Amino acid sequence: MLCFYVGSCALIPREVQDTSFKFVQVARQRGALFSIDPNCRPSKIDNREEYFEGMIRFLRAAVFIKLSDEDLHYFYPELTDDALEIFAQEYLPQLCIYTVGSGGRMGQSAFAVSVRIPAVLPGAPADASAPVVIRCIGSRYEEFRN
After folding, report:
1. Which of 25, 79, 103, 130 has its CA 20 to 30 A from that of 31?
2. Mean pLDDT throughout 90-116?
3. CB of 24 within 8 A of CB of 56?
4. Are 85 and 117 in contact (CB under 8 A)?
5. Residues 13-24, buried b or exposed e (16+ Cβ, 10 A)?
């Protein structure tokens, strides 16, 4: 199985978004799953509306989204406690890994399964805990099915 991943500050300029999304479309046509980590950097974004408008297509196309609490707040500053649920309903990723700094990680799947993983090492990159979240969701999914 192939997975095509994009993310980070490289997606801030609209021209780069447009070109990158063409690659996403080709990868998906060839059967690849698509994953994104928006990694918003408000200090580098001149036009929030343009950036968000361009990012929506990536979020809608993604099967897997890694999202930080800062990313979520940037996309939806008006939302509070239920922001992740609203985000997941809007974009329908099969799996969303949500990081909350020292608060740990949360995984939410399209199968109505969610898990929380405490931050084991303060300051450890969220990517390091993604396999743990995925494994926990897989175990919970099996319990859910039975």
Report:
1. 130
2. 72
3. no
4. no
5. beeebeebbeeb
